[in-house]
Amino acid sequence: MFCSPRQAGFFNSQRVDNLMAEFLSPKQAVLVRVQVYPHMKKLTQFLTSNTLFEAALPSVKELVDLLEKKKTDNQTINLFYGETYDEFGITIDSLKYYFILSFIHFHLEKLGFKVKSIVVQADTASLINKSAQDKELELNKQKDQRLELLEKIMKTYHLPIETKLMSDLFKSSQYQQNIKLVSKYAQSLTQDNKFFFNLEKTVLRNRIKQERQTKFKYALEAIATSMLFDIKIGPPREQFYDRAQHLMADELKLDKLGSIYLKPSYPLDQNFAFFLSNPEIEEFGLTPYKAGSNKMNDSRIILGRTTSNQLGAMISKSFESPNPDVAHPILDLFVIADMAKKLTSQNQDLPDYSQAKLLNDIEALKEKTITLVDRKILRRFKNEN
Amino acid sequence: MKTNHTNPLSQQEYAQKQAIKRRLDEYYSLQQKKNGLKSLNKIKQYLPDDYSLLALKRGTAIAHLDLEPILELIAKGEEFSVVSGLNPSSQLHLGHKVLFDLLKDLQNLGANLFIPITDLESYFDNKQSSVEQAKKITKEKIIPAIKKFNFDEKKTNLYLLSESQEIINFSLELSKHITPEEVKRVFGDDGVDNVGQMFYRGAMQLAQILQPQLPQHGGPKHTLIPVGIDQHPYILLARDIAKKIGMIPPSELVIKFQQSLLDPEKKMSGSKPKTAIYLDDSEEEIRKKINRAYTGSVSILADHRQLGGIPDICSVFSLLNSHCQDDDKVKKLRDQYLSGKLLMKDLKAATIEFIVKTLERFA
C-alpha cells in the first residue's frame, strides 16, 4: 500500500486504524519494485502518482508481483472497473476510470502482457436500489442509451475496453460458484464480524439501513463479481468491499483481488465550507459513476447534458486550493480532460502529472480546465443523452 | 537538542522549559478531548487566504464546536452574529486585544457583534466593590479603549449589562428553564458563592449568548461565541437551552489565553499588573515589563546558541505571535529562536518597538 499525500484523508491512521497493513511511501514502493522488475519502473511510478491515485491494495508492490506472476504463467490479466447508474446519465468522473484502465491496459500490452479490460455495467445492481425499483422501465431504457453512449466513448478515445452487463456475468458458471461461496461465507458469520463492518462502510451512512435490510445483497454480488477478475480500478470507498474479500480469501485460501483506488470525485460549484460541512464527501468523494450521488447531480458534469456555459459557471465558482492536502475538484477534472486529449490523439503512454505545478496557479488551472473539458469531452457528446 | 559542551545547569534549565511546553500542549489537548471539541486543522487547510484569521494562523484559536455553519455563512458572504462579553474588572490589556482583534476580523467577514460589558458579573464575583464602581471604570476606561478598535458601529452592539433591560427580561425568562441543580452540575459546587452568581451564570450569561436570536434581533440565527476554555460550560448549557426554546445552538471558538509575562502557564491578568501590558501603558512601562518577562531561552548565552530556544513558552515571543500581522517576520523570528540564532536582547528590543507602536492608538 502506498502512502497517500493526503495524509489527513484516506489513509490517515486514525481513520483506517487497524485496517492498515503495509505502509510504503511512493518513493519506497518505486524503489523496491524497480530493483526487482526494472521494466516495471514506469508503471510503478504511474501507480504511485499522487495526482491520480489514492492508494492500492494490498500494495503497489504486490500488484506488480501479481502481474509478473501472471506473465510467467502465460495467463491473461483481467482488469476491470464496475459501475452502477441512475437516471441522470454518465458522469465525466466515469471517464477517469475508463481512461486509467485503458492507459494501464496499453502499457501492459506494450510490455508483452496479455491483458483484457472490462467495464461492468451493474444493471441488476442498479435495480436493487430501492429508490430505483419503480423506475425499472426507465432504468432499462437508460441501460440501452448508456450502452450506446459507452460505445461512442470507446470509439472516440480509442479505448481497448469491453463493456459487459452484470446480468450477463451473473449467468456464468464461475459467477454462480463465486456467489454461492460468498453467500455461504457471509451466512457463517455473525453480524458483528469485521466482514460486515467493512461492507457497512461501502455506503454513505444514510444508506446503511437499506443495505442491512437487503442483507448486503449488492455488496455480496459485487464481491462475487470482483472475483472474476485479477485487478480492479475503483473509487476509494470500494476498499471496503476489497478488504472484506481479502478477509474471506485469507480464511478460505483464495486469491486476493488487487485494487487500485483513484482520487475521489468531488462536486463542482461548491465553496470551501462545503467540504468542512460534509466530512464524508470530503473523505471519500461522491460515487463517481452515480450522477445523482448525494443528490448533487446539478453540481456535476454529465455527458450530453451539461452545457459549455454551465461548465464555465460551475468551474469558476468551484473550490480549488494550492494546498495538496485538500479536495481537488478542478485538478481532477483537468487530468480527466488532459487524458481525453491524449487518448483522442492516440497518445497511449502513461500520463505524468505534477500536482505541485498544476496547483501553482489556480486561476490558470481553472481556465485550462474549462477549455480542455469543453473541447475534448463536452463537444464530442453534445445531444447524446 | 545539541548538548555537547553545554553547561549542565543549562541542560537542566532547558529540560525544565521543555517540560513546561509539554504540560501546556497536554493541557490544551486534554481539554479539547475532554470537552468534545474539534480540532481546527482541517479548517485551516481549507480556509482560503482571503478569509484567514490571525488567531487561526498563529494557533491562538485552538479548537471549535460546530463552527461549520458559521463558515458556510462566511463563504456565502452572509451575516452571522458573534457574542463576546467583557468583565470590567480591570483596564484592558493585551489579552483583551487578542479577543478584540479577532472580533474585528470576524466583523470584516460579516459578523454582527454583541459585546456585553458584564458589570454585574464583576460585582457578583467581588471583582468590583459596587455596580456603580464597575460602571465607572467601564465608562471611563473600557468603552473608550474598545472604540479605538474601530468596530463598525452599525454592526456593533456594545452595552452595559446593568443597563440592558432586554438582557434582564430575557434572563428572567430563561431562569425558569434552568434548575439550580443544572447550574451546579455544569459549574460544580465550588463555582457558586452567592445567589447573584447563580442567577448570573444560570440565566444572565445565557441571555447574552442567545440575545442575537431574540425576535427583535431577527430571530433564530447562527451565533459564534469566542471563549477561553474555562468558559466552555456556559456554551454547553446555552446549547441545551437553545434547543429547548427553539433557538439554534451557538457555535464555539476556543481561544488560548495570552500568557502572563512572568509565567507561561498562567494567563495575563488585569488584576496583576506585572503579568500584563495594559493598552494605555507608557513606553517606559512596556519596556520595563518586557525586559523582565519570562523567555524560552536558557540563561547562559553561549548555551542558548547551542541548545536553541523554545518560542512556544516565551512570554515575549507570544506578544509578537498574537499581535504582529507580518507572517514572514514572525516565522523568521521563530525559526531563529528555535535554532538559537535569535538573542533575547534582540527579541525583546524588537518586541518593545512593535508593542509600543501597536499601542500608540490607545495612548
The separation of the N and C termini of chain A measures 39 Å
Helix content of chain A: 40-55%
The largest chain-to-chain contact, stated as pair and per-chain residue counts, equals: A-B, 15 and 15 residues
**How large is the radius of gyration of chain A?**
20 Å
According to CATH, the homologous superfamily of the largest domain in chain B is: HUPs
Distance between the termini of chain B: 43 Å
- Say what the CATH topology of the largest domain in chain B is: Rossmann fold
User: What is the subunit organization of this protein?
Assistant: heterodimer
Q: Report the sheet with the most strands of chain A, covering strand number, pairing sense and barrel closure.
A: 6 strands, mixed
**Number of helical stretches of at least 4 residues of chain A:** 19
Mean pLDDT level of chain A: 88
How much beta of chain B, percentage-wise? Answer: 5-15%
CATH class of the largest domain in chain B: Alpha Beta
The poorly predicted ranges of chain A are 1-24
Please report the total strand number of chain B as a whole number: 7
Q: Could you explain the architecture of this structure?
A:
The complex is a heterodimer of chains A (about 375) and B (about 375). Chain A is α/β, with parallel strands linked by helices and about 375 residues long. Chain A is built from 19 helices and six strands. Chain A has helices at about 15, 25-35, 40-45, 60-70, 90-110, 125-130, 135-155, 165-170, 175-185, 195-200, 210-215, 215-225, 240-250, 270-275, 280-285, 310-315, 330-345, 355-360, 360-375, and strands spanning about 55, 75-85, 115-120, 160-165, 230-235, 260. In chain A, strands 1-6-5-2-3-4 form a six-stranded mixed β-sheet, with helices on both faces. The longest helix of chain A is centred in the middle third of the chain and has 21 residues, at about 135-155. Chain B is an alpha/beta fold. Chain B folds into two domains: about 10-20 and about 265-360, Orthogonal Bundle (Tyrosyl-Transfer RNA Synthetase); about 35-255, HUPs (Rossmann fold). Helices cover about 50% and strands about 10% of the residues of chain B. In chain B, helix 5 (about 95-110) links the parallel strand 3 and strand 4 (about 110-115). In chain B, helix 12 (about 285-290) packs antiparallel against helix 16. The chains are: A alpha/beta (about 375), B alpha/beta (about 375). Chains A and B meet through helix 14 of A and helix 2 and helix 4 of B.
